[in-house]
Amino acid sequence: MPRPAASAAATDLRCPSPVLPSPDGPTIAGLLSPAPAPAPSGATRLWPGEPLLWSWGPWHPGEVRTVQCARVRLAAVGQCLADEVTMRHDLRRAAQDGRWERLTRWPGAYLLLVLQDDGALTAYADPAGQFPLYYGRHGQNTVLSTRARTAAALSGAVGRPDTAALAAHIFCPAVPELTEGRTGYDGIRRLGGGQALKVAPSGRCTHWAYEDLAPDPGTRFEDSAAQLRSALTRAVTLRTDSAPRVTSDFSGGLDSTSLAFLAARTTGRPPLDAFVYHHPDAPAGDLAHALAHAEQAPSIRLAVTRGSEDSLPYSGLPGYGSADQPDPAAVIGARQRLRLDHIARGGPGIHLTGEGGDALLAAPPSYLGDIAATAGLRRLLSDGRALARIRQLSPADVILRARRLARTPLHQAMGELASRLDEPLDHPPQWADAVAWWPAPGPETAWLTTRARGHLAELAELAEARARSAGPASPSAPATPGTRAVLCELRISAAVQAQFTSTARAFGIWPHAPFLDSEVVRACTRLPLPHRIDPFTAKPLLAAALTGLVPDPVLRRRTKGDYAAENYRGVRRSAAQIRARLLRSPLAELGIIEPSRVIASVERAVAGLPAPFPALNRLLGSDLWLTAGNSGQEWP
Fold first, then answer.
1. Which among 317, 324, 473, 528 is least buried, having the fewest CB atoms inside 10 angstroms?
2. What is the Cα–Cα distance from 133 to 323, expressed in whole angstroms?
3. Helices H, strands E: what count in the chain?
4. Phi/psi of residue 52, each to 5°?
5. How many CB atoms within 10 Å of residue 419?
6. PANTHER family in the record, alphabetically (predicted)?
7. Could you tell me where the beta strands, DSSP code E, fall in 14-161?
8. pLDDT for 570-590, tens place per residue?
9. Which regions in the chain score pLDDT beneath 50?
10. With contact defined as beta carbons under 8 Å apart, do 313 and 620 qualify?
């Protein structure tokens, strides 16, 4: 491949080429420089004969797929389900007309890497953001990796946490605009859902959104239901056709249970092994539904994974640190490993989860603002009263919140966030508090140091300025509060699935979330949110799409498993270990939290009082990430 001459930056002794580390897990990484770095130990070239990007294994079979033609090389990393003939044909067409985004339309979900013969590399993250790319700078050169930790090692950012980004992750997770793609590593950015990055041979980076998942006002409910039925059925069928073993979650709820029924219809190796988790001393309410639904399908063999005291949340925290990104699910690591061990007893294979279904198909409270702005007063009164009655709230209060939200532009909400950090809610955010662009900060804000609170306020002020300058007509601006909330929840679901996939790798299990497939995501988000939601029906679009394929009792369930009892039981059992961890937390050393204030909230939880468990889980996940980095655990 022709290359330009080495630049001064490539040979400058003040910017030496870093030694590429050998990651613990499967990774693709590279230093994009006119003078490519030497082959790292233990790595293979991503593309034969091309030294730009390197790969470490072991990957699952088919997790990294490469094709090439005369002028371009391509890699799809993740779950690309297209056949090779289609991939080669579409690549040749794209090489001729330059329409690379066409290659993001294949079934599945994947990170796309396209290397042209002039040395330009373009990356496309999947629309949901399950397969991101991390990038940064090393001198004048660009570093890339599928792991944040490896990108940080290449750029020299290891040991330099981004304290503002960590604080935003813990205390304002529903406001990603504060950090705009920053990660826990200083200087390392994340190419997230629907985003693209082009790195020129000179090292210059261009970043844009190629897929905004904006609703199409002309889309009809019936058409979206048909598209979702086709996309979801195809997503499951392609997996059951190709994998030697497929298993599924089976909670008894709409999402995972529906996928299990679809898989049972298409697998050529019945029965399908399906799994439901149940803690006898802290039941979540799923088991009875799962048992009842499984009785209707002889092609499904249901197994119950029974929890114990050792699988409660917060059990064995020191052993579950994540080395790549802070993981709120680290606190339930014992439960995850119990489930994965049970699944793995039957051998390695693909495991279906329902992750993403709630984000795409359930109603965020902020959708009432969309109703107030676009659907008229009659619809607002109907939906507002119905939802208020279900939750035993004041209909007038709910409707007033929705009307206020419809009149509040995004930049104004950003400005209010900065002031609310000093006047947070005195209770964990409730459903009605989320009839807003995002829930207001809760009592966990008291954990912040004065300096950290100031950093967050500065981020909010910067985000306000960006939102004000972008304006409502900007392509990057979410059209409505509800649309924005769906996309935020979708990104969170994608991150949760990515972390679970990483955890499952040691068990030989490859989790797949068909609801996060690109075709499924597009089918759902194309329909405007007010047409997608009905307060009297749980996930009406999914019910319409799967009628006749999934039993009606499954599609009619309105409840979800509630793990609050496990949270309280777990925090009581592990309170001493949590206190000890907080007293020596790196988050305190970085000036983000006051440990005594967090411990006070833990004591409230131990006493059975309301406590901000989600914030506590994010905090402990960040603490575990920092601690693992300091100790070298799981770090390359």
1. 473
2. 16
3. 24, 17
4. -70, -45
5. 10
6. ASPARAGINE SYNTHETASE, ASPARAGINE SYNTHETASE (GLUTAMINE-HYDROLYZING)
7. 27-32, 44-47, 50-56, 64-68, 72-80, 108-116, 121-124, 133-138, 141-145
8. 999 999 999 999 999 999 999
9. 1-15, 473, 631-636
10. no
